[in-house]
Amino acid sequence: MPQYPHGPLRSFGRIKARPIKARRASLLTTLLPELALEIGQPVAPLSLKPDAAEVWLEIGFGGGEHLAAQATGRPDALLLGAEPFLNGVASALRHIEAASLTNVRLHAGDARDLLAALPTACLDRIFILFPDPWPKQRHHKRRLIQPETIAELARVLRPGGRLRFATDWADYADWTLERLMRTTALVWTAQRADDWRLAPADHVPTRYEAKKLGDIAPIYLEFERSALEA
Ligand SMILES: C[S@@+](CC[C@H](N)C(=O)[O-])C[C@H]1O[C@@H](n2cnc3c(N)ncnc32)[C@H](O)[C@@H]1O
User: Fold this and answer.
1) Contact at 8 Å (CB) between 49 and 40?
2) Distance from Cα 211 to the centre of ligand 1, integer Å
């Protein structure tokens, strides 16, 4: 795992909130073990679904609505998801069960641990949608977007692979753009304002997005992995 200068700081808030409904709680003990990624060892995504046309990762999938919708739309792709918030994981399991999805695997924990277990250039797409904004200056170091995480995102994306980042916090948008544009490994694909102002055609609105808690309308930043070194 890369060495983070601030130590293993939590980039997420709570990992459990209100009591989990009985059906969801039972899925945590029945379905989750079937779908859980074993990150104590290197994870080879194609060994999980050898016929997968593409491998996608969603970091911080929250309640799993987006993850499940994308997995439904692309049954030929393998969708990996990482989320430490147990209520969110339970909710995602409910969606996975309801849609009888067989192309999703989960890590119920910190995505940075999963990234470290993934081989280089193994992913076609990564989604980071409405990550915790940590708006106070003294909490900025908790933001998921840090140089070490960016290096890992660039490492696991294949050349031509894409990273989508969305936020409705102006300062986090600036923060992310500034840091991602420092690496030649990731190229911002926007040609015109509508490319970041309008939701991409294949975007599925998320639960957090619907709450409109930020200080701007959502922006969507899409980056392509170049063939250059990080
Ligand atoms: C503000 S919520 C947004 C959830 C969802 N993407 C949405 O838009 O509804 C951010 C989520 O990211 C998760 N998160 C934060 N740090 C994370 C990390 N290091 N790895 C995986 N998930 C993380 C949090 O637990 C939380 O559920």
Assistant:
1) no
2) 14
